[in-house]
Amino acid sequence: MKENANVLARYAVICQQNGIVPIVEPEVLPDGNHDLYTAMRVTEDVLAFVYKALADHHVYLEGTLLKPNMVTAGQSHSQKYSVEQNAVATVQTLQRTVPCAVPGERCSGPGEIRRQFTNCVGRSITVCGQPHLLNLYK
Fold this sequence. Notes:
By secondary structure, the chain is mainly α. The protein has one domain (2-135): Aldolase class I (TIM Barrel, Alpha-Beta Barrel). The protein contains 4 helices and 2 strands, in the order H-E-H-E-H-H. The chain has helices spanning 2-17, 36-56, 83-97, 111-128; strands at 23-24, 65-66. The chain has a two-stranded parallel sheet with strand order 1-2. Helix 1 packs across helix 2 (36-56) and helix 3 (83-97) packs across helix 4. It starts with a helix and ends in a 10-residue tail after the last helix.
């Protein structure tokens, strides 16, 4: 995780030195049999490593975008979680790890699921009162 975070940080530095806004995209794969709570913990760890590396490399956070994964249980996990449960888990994970200086995040995912997820994230952010996360998934 640490080495991947450093690679992302070096990429961000090179982008910023060349006048490009880096889109930081740490990848947490949904492979495996892990539950939603484990996915949250792993994603938090990955994001913590990434933001530590970005700080160590003196990346200007206000000049970056984050493209996080949707926090979901492993594809082989027996329990299936709702889109809303995944959205709440994602928002909580981002609240715990993404600095307020980051101006926005973008999510990738399949069409209709992404739209449903975006709506759930918006409701979760409103309830949680985290205005800096309102740039999510626009």
